[in-house]
Amino acid sequence: MSTDDTTDTTTDASTDTETNCGAASTPDSEAATTEDSASKCGGSASSSSGSSCGASSSGDEEEVGATVEDFDADPGRLVAVGLGPGQPEGMTARAREALLDAEHIVGYTTYVDLLPEEVREGVDELYDTPMCGEVSRTEEAIDRALAGNDVAIVGSGDPNVYALAGLALEILESKGATASMVEFDVVPGVPAAQSCGARLGAPLVNDTVSISLSDHLTDMPTIESRLHAAAKEGFTISIYNPWSRKRRENFEKCCEILEEHRPADTPVGIVHGAGREDEQVEIVELGELEELGETDLVDMTTTIIVGNEETYVWDDRMVTPRGYESKYDY
Amino acid sequence: MSTDDTTDTTTDASTDTETNCGAASTPDSEAATTEDSASKCGGSASSSSGSSCGASSSGDEEEVGATVEDFDADPGRLVAVGLGPGQPEGMTARAREALLDAEHIVGYTTYVDLLPEEVREGVDELYDTPMCGEVSRTEEAIDRALAGNDVAIVGSGDPNVYALAGLALEILESKGATASMVEFDVVPGVPAAQSCGARLGAPLVNDTVSISLSDHLTDMPTIESRLHAAAKEGFTISIYNPWSRKRRENFEKCCEILEEHRPADTPVGIVHGAGREDEQVEIVELGELEELGETDLVDMTTTIIVGNEETYVWDDRMVTPRGYESKYDY
Hints:
2 copies of one chain form a homodimer. Chain A has helices at about 95-100, 110-115, 115-120, 135-145, 165-175, 190-200, 220-230, 250-260, 285-290, 325, and strands at about 80, 105-110, 125-130, 150-155, 185, 200, 210, 235-240, 265-270, 280-285, 300-305, 310-315, 315-320. By secondary structure, chain A is α/β, with parallel strands linked by helices. Strand 7 of chain A pairs antiparallel with strand 7 (about 210) of chain B.
């Protein structure tokens, strides 16, 4: 496959197949085992993994196709951009600039569709895939950069929070490329824990932990051990990827562990679809959490914030005090 | 004191005294024990705690002066806005909007000085104090809101990360007010851990912990116990407030605990003054960390990111893999 014709914008929709991998959209990226390939993003110029911009072929997304030696062009740049909660107003000015500077933007369809009009119109190519294609999407972004394009790969939240900054570096290395070769840079965004914390009030103002319940990439005994330690040590806990049809047991186990260490009336904040049209915010008690796993409130777009022993609910807000009261007479 | 004349912009500089509380500027707010009062922010309209906009008197910042009953006006709004790393380009569009909508902006001098020109010029009053005045500053913001003004209180990073969202709610409650009364809202920002993580590459892409080494509001045995647990359980660790002259021992103790559980060659990222002119970024080994406590690299503007057992350094970047490699052949 030719890789030096980097300005070809022909759209090849022949690989436009969507695969449902058994979960709704996810707030932070995570790879899944099913295969998928390119989808067209409604209305905008869109290319697919069959185009000549990248070097990977569409049939084997879980294997790295091209290595750095397959590219003749001088590499372009690759920047991983965190969009925050997803809507344009949650994005930093620096993220917007990085997107306006990019020739190609690569991302998960849901977030590419939410990009500001100005960004969508200014870019040469938008490449988006439905969820579950994180590895192939990231490789596509890298191949496009190695082929000479300035590429932004986007995701919600922050690229360092269960997301693509690490994957991009891992794949670059596996291709025999380096981060410097594509001037790899990361533009941080507001993580889901902070977006959800803000909606709830002030649940996270002291020492805190983030734990993902997805055992796709971390085994369940490790996750359980971390939950025990976090709950025992008085950390507030942000739970990412709390539930999917394939792993109801992880959520149940998590609730049991938390209840071992914290009272049943510990405040728990649940934010579903933060900043989106279907956003739901609830503050419940720890003892009620497990049964909510079977409702629409808890899915892959939900982040759960578990208070510590000092967290209380006041005027519909969750507050974790830092101890000011003991130091100051106010 | 009259509190209903909320539009008085008289500047009272008589309380313009700066107190150095023994540390440089801090990336996330924290209260300190010394007293201070208002300073003028260079060139802009500035009021002080002696003005008639708020109800607190300037001599007793650590006690709540006015309660909700002292205010006759219909309350205005109070929004806690996270500025991210501090420079305007690190701010979200939503944060900028909140600042443009505010009549009064209250914050620590360093960050107020960094606000975009458009914001500084559009606001009726800027009230800033040097560091260590977090409690008095927050109370001032609340009093101004209770007196009928729309107020934004600003800080770097995110208002939920060792910062003022919780303090604002605690003080509102102590005044007999409620959050709803001032339509209290939080606008999230990019936390220091994410700003620093982005500069280092991808150090935080798996389960992670934030721990502050300041024992001003959390006692040292608790901090030590949390460090042990986090280091044992394979979390990456973001260390906030790592060092001040008053607590060298905390930093030394922290390094000892980390070395008990992790090899001396564990990668550690140090980011001093993220996003500022004096920014310094270094990736070192855990075994070198303790001695760096005595250099300019580590102070209150520094955030330290400690890798886990799997973190490695590649091409000057810190990478914490998520385990993709074991699942995918790339």
